Amino acid sequence: MSDTAIYNARNRRVLGASLAGTAVEFYDFYIYATAASLVFGPLFFPSSSDSAQLMLSYATFAIAFIARPVGAVFFGHFGDRIGRKSTLVASLLMMGGSTVAIAFLPTYAMVGWVAPLLLCILRFGQGFGLGGEWGGAALLAVENAPPGYKARFGMFPQLGAPVGFLAANGFFLLLGLGLDQEAFQSWGWRLPFLASAVLVGIGLWVRLKLTETPDFQAALEEAPPPAVPLGEVLRTNWREVLGGTFGVVACFCIYYLSTAFALGYGVKTLGYSREAFLGVQLVAILFMAAGIIWAGYWSDASSPRRVLMTGCILAVGAGFALSPMMGAGSLLLIGVFLSIAMVLMGLVYGPLGAWLPGLFPARVRYTGASLAFNVGGIIGGGMTPLIAEALVGRGGLGLVGGYLSAACALSLAALFLLKGTASGDSR
Questions:
Q1: What are the residues whose beta carbons fall under 8 Å from the beta carbon of 266, sequence distance 6 or more?
Q2: How far apart are CA 82 and CA 98, in angstroms?
Q3: CA distance 356 to 32
Q4: How far is 380 from 352, CA to CA, in rounded Å?
Q5: 107 contacts: CB under 8 Å, gap ≥ 6
Q6: Quick check: 13 and 141 in contact, CB under 8 A?
Q7: Domain containing 194: what range?
Q8: Looking at the 3D structure of the chain, how many domains does it have?
Q9: What averages of pLDDT result for each successive group of 10 residues across the chain (427 residues)?
């Protein structure tokens, strides 16, 4: 069968929906990460020191990672019982509504402690919505994939991450170029959150045109849906949940060290301008997109598990390069390191769209894949910017590099031990 026939009108619509939805969701998530690194500290927390405010801002960033497994269980329950389509629409509405509401928040100077409380509540809503997003988008793609194309179809929701990042940080870069610091701090930072309403509308329009996936329909024909998908997946597939959870740690750690932590460190500690550092990160994220596409084709030619393991091995080595390259005093060298890290991010993230769903049977696949992905997000990403900031204060960038290597080694061990799957091949 030719590639033209594979990518017919129906499949183009499916892949477009999986990409568009995750791009919107990750745009929402990333504008928060960027704002947390740049402005939320002084706006929402009492002044003590710049470092303390930044760490408190990173702490609110971590709240969404705690919410994500809760959202994964909630949306996974309905995704495995009533279908992928309606669940994906609901998760998009939850995420988008929380993001738009952040644009209207009062600051600490206006209402005191109520400001950070409201920020934390809305951040939880963002994480809750995203907890149901990734698993559903990945299933939408891979459950519609022809034989031999699962990784290439599964890379489309993964590509939503760099697309969302480019939109989010590109927006902040334009604001930085067009507004002075006072205007940006006063009201300019709110504009990317407001713009989410338009993007969510586009995502909903695309997703409402979808039908259910063949795998879900086949599972319903074979047996009634599980009454409690979480209970069934933990009883019958606990090894896959555990292995999948630790298998995704590397991608979260690489990503949030290279984005949220690097941005805060580059601007606040190294003294680079916000616009210059965002520009470097925007270039680096293109390498992530290239890495995801490379990983998708490579995974179909060999296996997702093999590509993931290769990426983890290379990322362990990248941890040793973090300190000398990030601390060299050269923005060019920092850009080279971030670009390398983003290519490796593509290798340990791109195949997940095919690998994680392949660990679980269709009847509990939404719950199993979402739970593993989002619990792994807590371990690998939720506290990473905060931990990295603390490690810098205690021993410098060398400790941050060691932290990166250890996280990638943990994922490598999980991938090595998890050789079999419940319903697919993860050689």
A1: 272, 277, 280, 334
A2: 24
A3: 26
A4: 15
A5: 43, 44, 115
A6: no
A7: 3-417
A8: 1
A9: 63 84 82 81 75 73 85 92 85 89 91 88 90 87 90 93 88 86 88 89 80 84 89 94 96 91 88 88 94 96 96 97 92 96 96 94 93 92 84 90 96 88 42
141 three-class SS? helix
Percentages (nearest 5) of helix, strand, coil residues in the chain: 85, 0, 15
> Which residue is it, tokens 């932290």?
403
| Close Cβ partners of 178 (under 8 Å, ≥ 6 residues apart) | none
Q: Is residue 222 part of a domain?
A: yes
Q: What is the pTM of this model?
A: 0.86
Question: Within a domain: residue 422?
Answer: no
The domain that contains 150 carries what CATH number?
1.20.1250.20
- Is 84 within 8 Å of 139 (Cβ atoms)? yes
Signed CA dihedral, 196, 68, 138, 364: sign only: negative
Q: Is the residue at 358 inside a domain?
A: yes
Does a structural domain hold residue 315?
Answer: yes
Backbone angles phi, psi at 223, to 5 degrees: -165, 155
